């Protein structure tokens, strides 16, 4: 009986150790080493795309605080909010009792990291600028939460999907593209933006890739002068934006010949796993434009 009791106690200790997990250490997107005594169990995420990527990593159930517009997947809408990505509450973060904070490097505001570090809670910084950063981020989040069995297959799915699109369109006829984020003021993206990389993946090229600012405001004359094969509308929702039809006022535009396109901005403007679906949609539409140009 004593031996059995001893074996039972050892088993309980082993299970308790497994539940606690081993120490975790990763390097975030600012080159900082983030160390935890065990995988995170209570996480606050300060950007909608980080919330979404945490779910993709299989760790959405660890979230105890998010910011406004954290609306995907649907379960994220019911989570407690600690403010917005640009105006979060330190008091509400503390009240959530997290053992890890995930912040957006360029989006949470200057000085945000220093403020969060003063709370004494480990802070991981996300800053996704390349397509490859999306699966890399999902892997890192999975490691931080101890959910690698979910995060690794998802990261591989994304990498394989992007690679397949690259192979398919690598030698395709190039299509010139103007990506319109907004209409008033008229706004686009430069070649450093992740959306521009998606355009390139599809065998297109961004006609404003050479502009210095990441998301520049431009004038109408510059769009007419560059006369793109396709105008892709982003905007704020999945519906066809009325302002895309405004381009019909300029009958000389090449884009009017089958090149006025719409992609759900949530699938291409957020650096999440859904970018693969957005890329597939855009690639298919640009292929249609390519076929029209080939017949000209």
Description:
With 296 residues, the chain is α/β, with parallel strands linked by helices. It has two domains: 139 residues, Nitrogenase molybdenum iron protein domain (Rossmann fold, 3-Layer(aba) Sandwich), CATH 3.40.50; 124 residues, Nitrogenase molybdenum iron protein domain (Rossmann fold, 3-Layer(aba) Sandwich). 38% of the residues lie in helices and 16% in strands. The strands form five sheets. The chain has a four-stranded parallel beta sheet. The protein has a four-stranded parallel beta sheet with strand order 12-9-13-14, with helices on one face. Strands 1-2 form a two-stranded antiparallel ribbon. The protein is elongated and about 65 Å long.
What is the correct CATH architecture of the largest domain? 3-Layer(aba) Sandwich
Largest sheet, if any? 4 strands, parallel
- Can you give the mean pLDDT? 90
Q: How are helices and strands ordered from N to C? A: HEEEHEEEHEHEHHEEEHEHEEH
Pairing-aware structural class of the strands and helices? alpha/beta
What is the strand arrangement across the widest sheet?
4-3-7-8
Q: How much strand content do the residues show?
A: 15-25%
End-to-end separation: 88 Å
CATH class of the largest domain: Alpha Beta
């Amino acid at each position: 009986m004593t031996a059995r009791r001893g074996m039972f106690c050892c088993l309980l200790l082993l299970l308790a150790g497994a539940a606690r997990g081993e120490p975790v250490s990763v390097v975030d997107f600012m080159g900082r080493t983030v160390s935890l005594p065990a995988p995170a169990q209570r996480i606050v995420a300060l950007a909608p795309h980080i919330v979404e990527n945490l779910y993709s990593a299989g760790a959405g159930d660890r979230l105890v605080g998010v910011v406004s517009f954290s609306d995907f997947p649907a379960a994220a809408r019911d989570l407690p909010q600690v403010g917005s990505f640009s105006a979060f509450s330190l008091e509400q973060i503390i009240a959530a009792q997290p053992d890890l904070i995930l912040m957006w490097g360029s989006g949470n505001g200057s000085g945000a990291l220093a403020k969060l570090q003063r709370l004494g809670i480990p802070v991981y910084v996300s800053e996704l600028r390349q397509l490859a950063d999306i699966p890399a981020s999902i892997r890192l989040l999975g490691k931080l939460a101890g959910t690698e069995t979910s995060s690794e297959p998802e990261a591989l799915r994304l990498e394989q999907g992007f690679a397949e699109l690259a192979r398919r369109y690598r030698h395709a006829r190039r299509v010139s593209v103007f990506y319109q984020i907004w209409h008033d003021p008229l706004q686009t993206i430069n070649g450093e933006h992740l959306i521009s990389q998606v355009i390139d993946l599809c065998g297109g090229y961004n006609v404003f890739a050479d502009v210095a600012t990441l998301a520049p405001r431009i004038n109408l004359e510059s769009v007419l002068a560059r006369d793109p094969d396709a105008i892709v509308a982003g905007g704020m929702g999945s519906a066809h934006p009325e302002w895309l039809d405004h381009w019909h006022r300029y009958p000389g535009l090449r884009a009017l010949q089958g090149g006025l396109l719409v992609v759900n901005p949530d699938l291409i403007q957020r650096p999440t796993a859904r970018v693969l679906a957005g890329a597939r949609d855009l690639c298919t539409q640009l292929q249609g434009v390519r076929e029209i140009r080939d017949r000209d």
